[in-house]
Amino acid sequence: MRRILWLLLLVVLTCEAAPAQNQSINELRRMFDYDQKAPLDIKEVAVIRRPGVEIHDITYASPKSGRVTAYLVVPAGRGRFAGIIFGHWAYGTRTEFLPEAILYAQAGVVSLLVDDLGVRPAPWRRRAEGDQPEAVRDIFIQSVVDLRRGIDVLESRSDVDSSRIAYVGHSSGAHWGAILSAVDRRLKTVVLMTGVPDERAIMMESDDPDYVNARESARAKQEMGIYLKVVSPFDATNYVAHAALTPLLFQFARFEQYFNEAAMRRYAQAASEPKLVLWYDTGHGLNDLRPLIDRANWLQRHIGMKSVAPLLRSSLRN
After folding, report:
1. Which is nearest to 197 in space by CA: 134, 135, 252, 142?
2. pLDDT tens digits, residue range 8-67?
3. Which residues contact 15 (CB under 8 A, 6 or more apart)?
4. Nearest alpha-carbon partner for 147 in 204, 121, 186, 109
5. Cβ atoms within 10 Å of 42's Cβ, excluding its own
6. Using CA atoms, how far apart are residues 141 and 113, in angstroms rounded to an integer?
7. Which of 50, 59, 221, 256 has its CA 20 to 30 A from that of 262?
8. CA-derived radius of gyration, the chain
9. pLDDT digit string (tens) for 232-245?
């Protein structure tokens, strides 16, 4: 019986990447289709005013289910501004990038900071565990579609130049960004912060104690194999290979907690050109000024916002 179990496990793990390999990029892209003509139904909850910027607390209709909660950060005055959509990491909320968005507003950017499904208020919150791979798959799809709808929100604004819209994502937000890079050609550039190349790098290769303990038994490995078989079509590496001609900026942490350097290099190598890969002496959070400066310089180059250097110098003086 034990031999049969291990043979079954071997078959499952060997086949786990087959769906992605057998699906063309066009088939993968079709999973994220939605009705772009449906009403956005944008509703404003509140407005917070700060010098030179307004922070609009809004919701808009998800093409899949419920509503999307977001902050819309808008510069003072009139103009045809660049636009950025921000996707936060799994343990954060839309507030993760709020200080950065306020800084960019002073540099001429309208930003949309989207709450992921797992942190939206009731009744719009959706979560799934690893033993529910089909539910995880559906959440992956909705997360990306809701961000595509966010591009529609920015494009609907008369003060946004639709030819200058970028995406910035951290961790799980970077995962959605990797998919967006191949699925939605409206993005001028995509920034991927400490993103993971594929679920296997986390589930099967990570030396983080939680993941090590979770895969110790043969039964756990079998369940992980089934999970990976369902979700592998959504691995980031399946999409960044087809991002061209969208420029990609990768920002990796040398002291990464959740996956190893080999996985990060595998990810960057899989991506199409043009791309830039940068490394930092930080942990997963990239909590240092240098990554922010590098992001800002990259965005300045690709979406034409103003330099943030004078703004940062002014902030330090004050």
Report:
1. 252
2. 333 333 333 333 445 789 999 999 999 999 999 999 999 999 999 999 999 999 999 999
3. 225, 229
4. 186
5. 18
6. 18
7. 221
8. 20
9. 999 999 999 999 99
